[in-house]
Amino acid sequence: MKRFFIAVVAMMLTAGAAMAQNYMVVDSEKVFKSLAEYNNALEQIESLSAQYQKQVDAKFAEVEKMYNTYMQQRASLSASVQQQREKQILDSEAAATEYQQSLFGTDGELMKKRMELIQPIQKRVFSTLESFAKQNGYDLVIDISANPTVLYYSEKVNFTDKIIEALK
After folding, report:
1. Helices 36-73 and 109-135 meet at what angle, rounded to 10?
2. Per-residue pLDDT tens over the stretch 43-92
3. Which of 17, 94, 145, 150 has minimal Cβ neighbours within 10 Å of its Cβ?
4. Exposed (0-12), middle (13-18) or buried (19+): which is 82, by Cβ within 10 Å?
5. Distance between CA atoms of 134 and 5, rounded to whole angstroms?
6. Are 27 and 155 in contact (CB under 8 A)?
7. Which tens digit of pLDDT belongs to each residue from 105-120?
8. Residues 91/63, Cβ–Cβ less than 8 Å
């Protein structure tokens, strides 16, 4: 009976080992930052963002100037002119907010530019990762750059540098 039990346990362990998945670990942040084209794209996006921010700030400064002028003149204005100016200020503020959203929103110009510049690089990196994993028999790729739940991994499963080499 003991031999039968030992044989069953051995078979279960062997089957479990055969079904185990191979995995690899990659630091995608390190991979991306190793690519000059990615760094250039980030610089372009930052520059464009700063330019857009200046434009938005100018619009809001204009609204603030309108408001300050109105507050100084309010006492001498009739009720209808006060309402008209208040509406004008609110409309200008809404327009500035809408403009800000058109530049920085989820469908804004900055996001479109980001997609245009970054997406091809991401596709290339992910394609290289997939090819590398398939060629080397890995079933799972774990990104350790932004994964706070990875508590430990062995360096022998970290293929970040090999992915960087494959991209060059």
Report:
1. 160
2. 999 999 999 999 999 999 999 999 999 999 999 999 999 999 999 999 99
3. 17
4. middle
5. 38
6. no
7. 999 999 999 999 999 9
8. no
Locate tokens 């398939």: which residue?
A: 134
* Look-up of token digits 């990875």: 150
- Both tokens of 73, joined, read 């003149």
The mean pLDDT value of the chain amounts to 86
**Is the CB of residue 153 less than 8 Å from the CB of residue 27?**
no
Q: To which residue do tokens 């069953």 refer?
A: 8
Domain ranges of the chain: 17-167
**Contact present, 135 and 101 (Cβ < 8 Å):** no
What is the separation, in whole angstroms, between the first and last Cα of the chain? Answer: 60
Would you say how long the chain is, in residues? Answer: 168
DSSP the chain: -HHHHHHHHHHHHHHHHHHPPPEEEE-HHHHHHT-HHHHHHHHHHHHHHHHHHHHHHHHHHHHHHHHHHHHHHGGGS-HHHHHHHHHHHHHHHHHHHHHHHHHHSTTSHHHHHHHHHHHHHHHHHHHHHHHHHHHTT-SEEEE-SS-TT-----GGGB-HHHHHHHH-
Cα 144 to Cα 22, 30, 53, 104, 155, distances in angstroms: 16, 10, 33, 29, 12
